Amino acid sequence: MSLRDCAKTGNHALTDANIVSGVCTRNRIAILILEACPLSEAASVAETWQLVNDALSWSDKAAHRYDVHVLSTEKDNVACASSIRLLAENIGEHDPRMFKAIFVGGGNTTYEPEVVDWLLHAGPEVELIAISSEIDALLAQVRPGAEPPASRAGARNTRVTSAIERVLAMAERDFGTLVRIRSEMLRAKLPSTRSGGRVPNLRGALALSERIEASLLWIKSNHAGSVSISELARRASMSERNFLRRFKAEVGQTPREYLARVRLENAQLLLVQTDLPVDKIARRCGLFNGDHLRRYFLKYLSVSPLEYRSLARERPIVSTSTEALNSGV
Q1: Sign of CA dihedral 213, 214, 220, 226
Q2: Per the domain annotation, does 225 fall within a domain?
Q3: What is the domain range of residue 287?
Q4: Number of folded domains in the chain?
Q5: pLDDT at position 145
Q6: Three-state SS across 158-174?
Q7: 177 Cβ contact list (under 8 Å, min separation 6)
Q8: 282 with 290: CB under 8 angstroms?
Q9: Is 36 inside any structural domain?
């Protein structure tokens, strides 16, 4: 779902029935876009919420899916850092107490009193989550003493990654581990943008260069074998140093990080689509053995491979075609 689509969802009317003692009674989520907010950061969070809702479509709780609103101090068109304008609703049209969580993104460190007052009015029951590091000062003003979920010294991607983790954790808390796993599987199938976000249907997503795109395809096709930086650089006709720099700048990950993700995601598909033992799946994905695969799953998904298989098979969630398996991420 694009940010424009997010802004159109749900009933925007305020009624007393929506608020009980100042506490949100529905799964309403706000993405507050402030001045100079990078498009990719806000879009990555919006897209993740859409994937959570898609994952809930397999659940008998689908009627309780999240209602996502894109807000701003303006109305209709809002300018982002990339000069692209997005459709949003004005914060004045919404009581902040109606929201379960408010994700805030922006590129400046000072904001209008209207924004501060609106966030203060949300009260302690509403989660406030920074999408970009520049928002830390604003949230510290609204919630004194609260620590940001990611290190202040971290890169820009660290903050948006932390925000996405909060989305998935919230979905798991509300609807269980299976919904989180399904959301992650859906997200794994989307292409990456240069910033590391996954926003396939938005204007402004930066295309990969031909040589880096070819490298990604080669990694997907050869992830079960040995993949070396020297071989990738040679195929891209670059020095290793230049290849590593270009790859990280365009993909948002190092080649080794991308390879680990491809191997993990193919292992996920094999666990769901086949009855192969874990050791054999590990070898088919380029890992040494089942113990190595188990460490991957615990690190990235916080479940073991067998737990993942059991949870994911509660209902059918992926295609059984070999084409889906070979599609990679």
Answers
A1: negative
A2: yes
A3: 208-326
A4: 2
A5: 61
A6: HHHHHHHHHHHHHHHHH
A7: 303, 311
A8: yes
A9: yes
